[in-house]
Write a structure and sequence with these properties.
Layout lengths: L1 E9 L3 E6 L11 E6 L3 H11 L3 E3 L10
This protein binds zinc ion (ZN).
Amino acid sequence: MKYYVNHETKNGGTHVVHSEECQFLPNEDKRTALGDYAKCETAMKHAKDEYATVNGCATCCPDCHD
Ligand SMILES: [Zn+2]
């Protein structure tokens, strides 16, 4: 599964990580590709290299959402 992090923030500063199949995946110009991983946990680690505050999408990455 390919994962992406949203450029735009939600709830005052959180960048949300989505999988490629998510209905809430942002448009191409509003997301950064994180890579192709088996688990969202790995994508989250890479997202944290980009942004200090990240969270998994509740819809596509419930295991990484809190
Ligand atoms: Zn999502």
